[in-house]
Fold this sequence. Notes:
Number of strands: 5
Number of helices: 9
Bound molecules: fe (iii) ion
Number of domains: 1
Oligomer: single chain
Amino acid sequence: MTTENDSKQGLTRREFTGLAAGLTAAAVVSGLAGTAKAQQTLAFPALPYPEDALEPYISARTLSFHYGKHHRAYYDNTVKLLSGNPLAGQLLEKIIVESAKDQASPALFNNSAQLWNHTFYFQGMKKGGGGPAPGKIGEMINKSFGSMDNFHKEFVDAAMGQFGSGWAWLVADNGNLKVVKTPNAVNPLVAGQKPILTADVWEHAYYLDYQNRRKDYLEAFMDHLIDWDFAAKNLG
Ligand code: FE
Protein backbone atom coordinates (compact mmCIF):
# COMPACT_ATOMS: atom_id res chain seq x y z
CA MET A 1 0.00 0.00 0.00
CA THR A 2 2.81 2.37 0.90
CA THR A 3 4.48 1.70 -2.45
CA GLU A 4 1.26 2.37 -4.32
CA ASN A 5 0.72 5.64 -2.48
CA ASP A 6 4.30 6.69 -3.06
CA SER A 7 3.92 5.88 -6.72
CA LYS A 8 0.78 7.97 -6.98
CA GLN A 9 2.46 10.90 -5.25
CA GLY A 10 5.42 10.55 -7.62
CA LEU A 11 3.24 10.54 -10.71
CA THR A 12 1.37 13.54 -9.43
CA ARG A 13 4.52 15.48 -8.79
CA ARG A 14 5.97 14.64 -12.20
CA GLU A 15 2.74 15.57 -13.90
CA PHE A 16 2.63 18.97 -12.29
CA THR A 17 6.32 19.61 -12.89
CA GLY A 18 5.81 18.76 -16.55
CA LEU A 19 2.81 21.03 -16.71
CA ALA A 20 4.75 23.98 -15.37
CA ALA A 21 7.76 23.24 -17.58
CA GLY A 22 5.62 23.10 -20.69
CA LEU A 23 3.77 26.29 -19.90
CA THR A 24 6.29 28.48 -18.17
CA ALA A 25 4.22 31.63 -18.29
CA ALA A 26 1.32 29.80 -16.71
CA ALA A 27 3.24 28.02 -13.98
CA VAL A 28 1.05 27.48 -10.97
CA VAL A 29 3.82 27.08 -8.48
CA SER A 30 7.34 28.38 -8.78
CA GLY A 31 10.28 26.20 -7.87
CA LEU A 32 8.59 22.89 -8.67
CA ALA A 33 11.88 21.29 -9.56
CA GLY A 34 12.83 21.28 -5.89
CA THR A 35 12.05 18.50 -3.46
CA ALA A 36 8.68 18.20 -1.80
CA LYS A 37 10.28 19.52 1.37
CA ALA A 38 11.45 22.74 -0.29
CA GLN A 39 9.40 25.82 0.44
CA GLN A 40 7.09 26.57 -2.47
CA THR A 41 5.74 29.99 -3.31
CA LEU A 42 2.30 30.12 -4.84
CA ALA A 43 2.07 32.45 -7.82
CA PHE A 44 -1.14 33.52 -9.53
CA PRO A 45 -1.01 31.65 -12.84
CA ALA A 46 -1.12 33.62 -16.08
CA LEU A 47 -3.92 32.92 -18.54
CA PRO A 48 -2.12 31.10 -21.39
CA TYR A 49 -3.90 33.16 -24.09
CA PRO A 50 -5.60 36.57 -24.46
CA GLU A 51 -9.08 36.85 -22.95
CA ASP A 52 -10.69 37.02 -26.41
CA ALA A 53 -8.77 34.01 -27.80
CA LEU A 54 -11.62 31.52 -27.32
CA GLU A 55 -14.34 33.60 -28.99
CA PRO A 56 -16.95 32.98 -30.22
CA TYR A 57 -17.22 29.85 -28.05
CA ILE A 58 -16.22 31.51 -24.76
CA SER A 59 -16.37 35.31 -24.73
CA ALA A 60 -13.77 37.71 -23.42
CA ARG A 61 -16.42 38.89 -20.96
CA THR A 62 -16.80 35.37 -19.53
CA LEU A 63 -13.03 34.94 -19.27
CA SER A 64 -12.56 38.36 -17.70
CA PHE A 65 -14.86 37.32 -14.86
CA HIS A 66 -13.93 33.65 -14.73
CA TYR A 67 -10.17 34.18 -14.77
CA GLY A 68 -9.90 37.73 -13.45
CA LYS A 69 -12.45 37.49 -10.62
CA HIS A 70 -13.30 33.86 -9.76
CA HIS A 71 -9.86 32.33 -10.27
CA ARG A 72 -8.21 35.35 -8.63
CA ALA A 73 -10.46 35.00 -5.57
CA TYR A 74 -9.60 31.29 -5.18
CA TYR A 75 -5.91 32.21 -5.36
CA ASP A 76 -6.18 35.11 -2.90
CA ASN A 77 -8.21 33.00 -0.46
CA THR A 78 -5.74 30.12 -0.69
CA VAL A 79 -2.82 32.43 0.11
CA LYS A 80 -4.73 33.93 3.06
CA LEU A 81 -5.79 30.54 4.45
CA LEU A 82 -2.24 29.18 4.21
CA SER A 83 -0.89 31.98 6.37
CA GLY A 84 0.17 30.29 9.60
CA ASN A 85 -1.09 26.89 8.37
CA PRO A 86 1.30 23.93 8.71
CA LEU A 87 0.69 23.14 5.01
CA ALA A 88 2.14 26.50 3.92
CA GLY A 89 5.07 25.99 1.56
CA GLN A 90 3.96 22.54 0.41
CA LEU A 91 3.14 21.66 -3.19
CA LEU A 92 -0.37 22.73 -4.13
CA GLU A 93 -1.33 19.11 -4.80
CA LYS A 94 -0.23 18.05 -1.33
CA ILE A 95 -2.19 20.95 0.18
CA ILE A 96 -5.29 19.72 -1.71
CA VAL A 97 -4.94 16.07 -0.72
CA GLU A 98 -4.16 16.85 2.94
CA SER A 99 -6.82 19.56 3.38
CA ALA A 100 -9.44 17.22 1.86
CA LYS A 101 -9.10 15.12 5.04
CA ASP A 102 -10.10 18.08 7.23
CA GLN A 103 -13.83 18.07 6.71
CA ALA A 104 -14.47 20.23 9.76
CA SER A 105 -12.93 23.26 8.05
CA PRO A 106 -13.32 22.87 4.30
CA ALA A 107 -12.26 26.39 3.23
CA LEU A 108 -8.63 25.58 2.45
CA PHE A 109 -9.58 22.49 0.44
CA ASN A 110 -12.30 24.32 -1.47
CA ASN A 111 -10.09 27.25 -2.42
CA SER A 112 -6.85 25.37 -3.12
CA ALA A 113 -8.64 22.72 -5.19
CA GLN A 114 -10.50 25.39 -7.16
CA LEU A 115 -7.18 27.18 -7.76
CA TRP A 116 -5.73 23.95 -9.19
CA ASN A 117 -8.90 23.00 -11.11
CA HIS A 118 -9.20 26.35 -12.86
CA THR A 119 -5.54 26.49 -13.86
CA PHE A 120 -5.91 22.99 -15.30
CA TYR A 121 -9.14 23.94 -17.11
CA PHE A 122 -7.77 27.15 -18.66
CA GLN A 123 -4.59 25.37 -19.78
CA GLY A 124 -6.67 22.60 -21.36
CA MET A 125 -8.22 24.90 -23.96
CA LYS A 126 -6.85 26.78 -26.96
CA LYS A 127 -8.00 28.68 -30.01
CA GLY A 128 -8.71 26.22 -32.82
CA GLY A 129 -8.78 23.21 -30.49
CA GLY A 130 -11.30 20.41 -30.06
CA GLY A 131 -12.40 17.63 -32.36
CA PRO A 132 -10.97 14.12 -32.41
CA ALA A 133 -7.89 13.51 -30.27
CA PRO A 134 -4.80 12.88 -32.41
CA GLY A 135 -1.91 10.43 -31.99
CA LYS A 136 -1.33 8.33 -28.91
CA ILE A 137 -4.04 9.90 -26.77
CA GLY A 138 -6.49 9.32 -29.62
CA GLU A 139 -5.51 5.64 -29.70
CA MET A 140 -5.90 5.40 -25.93
CA ILE A 141 -9.35 7.00 -26.07
CA ASN A 142 -10.42 4.60 -28.83
CA LYS A 143 -9.16 1.67 -26.75
CA SER A 144 -10.79 2.84 -23.51
CA PHE A 145 -14.14 4.05 -24.87
CA GLY A 146 -14.54 2.10 -28.13
CA SER A 147 -14.55 5.22 -30.30
CA MET A 148 -14.03 8.97 -30.19
CA ASP A 149 -17.80 9.44 -30.53
CA ASN A 150 -18.38 7.25 -27.47
CA PHE A 151 -15.88 9.31 -25.47
CA HIS A 152 -17.52 12.55 -26.62
CA LYS A 153 -20.96 11.29 -25.54
CA GLU A 154 -19.74 9.91 -22.22
CA PHE A 155 -17.92 13.15 -21.35
CA VAL A 156 -20.88 15.37 -22.23
CA ASP A 157 -23.29 13.04 -20.41
CA ALA A 158 -21.14 13.17 -17.26
CA ALA A 159 -20.92 16.96 -17.44
CA MET A 160 -24.67 17.25 -18.00
CA GLY A 161 -25.33 14.78 -15.18
CA GLN A 162 -23.40 16.79 -12.59
CA PHE A 163 -26.27 18.30 -10.62
CA GLY A 164 -25.41 21.87 -9.68
CA SER A 165 -21.79 22.99 -9.68
CA GLY A 166 -18.82 20.80 -10.47
CA TRP A 167 -16.48 19.36 -13.05
CA ALA A 168 -16.23 16.65 -15.72
CA TRP A 169 -12.85 14.97 -16.12
CA LEU A 170 -10.92 12.63 -18.34
CA VAL A 171 -8.62 10.73 -15.96
CA ALA A 172 -6.07 7.94 -16.04
CA ASP A 173 -6.79 5.30 -13.43
CA ASN A 174 -4.80 2.06 -13.20
CA GLY A 175 -3.70 2.33 -16.83
CA ASN A 176 -7.17 3.03 -18.25
CA LEU A 177 -8.77 6.29 -19.32
CA LYS A 178 -12.10 7.05 -17.66
CA VAL A 179 -14.62 9.86 -17.49
CA VAL A 180 -15.64 11.02 -14.02
CA LYS A 181 -17.60 13.92 -12.61
CA THR A 182 -17.01 15.71 -9.31
CA PRO A 183 -19.16 18.15 -7.29
CA ASN A 184 -18.11 21.66 -6.27
CA ALA A 185 -14.32 21.85 -5.75
CA VAL A 186 -13.61 18.11 -5.61
CA ASN A 187 -11.05 16.83 -8.10
CA PRO A 188 -9.65 13.41 -9.05
CA LEU A 189 -6.39 13.97 -7.14
CA VAL A 190 -8.19 13.16 -3.89
CA ALA A 191 -9.24 9.79 -5.36
CA GLY A 192 -5.68 8.99 -6.50
CA GLN A 193 -6.61 9.44 -10.17
CA LYS A 194 -4.50 11.35 -12.67
CA PRO A 195 -6.34 14.26 -14.33
CA ILE A 196 -5.87 14.48 -18.12
CA LEU A 197 -8.49 17.09 -19.06
CA THR A 198 -11.42 18.91 -17.44
CA ALA A 199 -14.51 20.98 -18.23
CA ASP A 200 -15.83 23.44 -15.65
CA VAL A 201 -19.61 23.10 -15.33
CA TRP A 202 -20.16 25.75 -12.67
CA GLU A 203 -22.63 28.21 -14.14
CA HIS A 204 -20.04 31.02 -14.01
CA ALA A 205 -18.13 29.14 -16.76
CA TYR A 206 -20.89 29.52 -19.34
CA TYR A 207 -23.90 31.50 -18.16
CA LEU A 208 -23.00 34.87 -19.76
CA ASP A 209 -22.59 33.16 -23.16
CA TYR A 210 -25.07 30.28 -23.03
CA GLN A 211 -27.41 31.07 -20.10
CA ASN A 212 -28.96 27.72 -19.10
CA ARG A 213 -27.76 25.87 -22.23
CA ARG A 214 -24.96 23.89 -20.58
CA LYS A 215 -25.00 21.32 -23.38
CA ASP A 216 -24.25 23.95 -26.06
CA TYR A 217 -21.24 25.11 -24.02
CA LEU A 218 -20.05 21.53 -23.67
CA GLU A 219 -20.43 20.78 -27.36
CA ALA A 220 -18.37 23.91 -28.14
CA PHE A 221 -15.75 22.77 -25.62
CA MET A 222 -15.52 19.33 -27.25
CA ASP A 223 -15.58 20.49 -30.88
CA HIS A 224 -13.60 23.75 -30.74
CA LEU A 225 -11.64 24.27 -27.52
CA ILE A 226 -9.87 21.17 -26.14
CA ASP A 227 -6.08 21.47 -26.30
CA TRP A 228 -5.18 17.84 -27.03
CA ASP A 229 -1.45 18.61 -26.80
CA PHE A 230 -2.01 19.63 -23.16
CA ALA A 231 -4.05 16.48 -22.51
CA ALA A 232 -1.37 14.29 -24.15
CA LYS A 233 1.34 15.84 -21.92
CA ASN A 234 -0.67 14.90 -18.86
CA LEU A 235 -0.53 11.22 -19.81
CA GLY A 236 3.15 11.44 -18.68
FE1 FE B 1 -15.06 28.07 -12.69
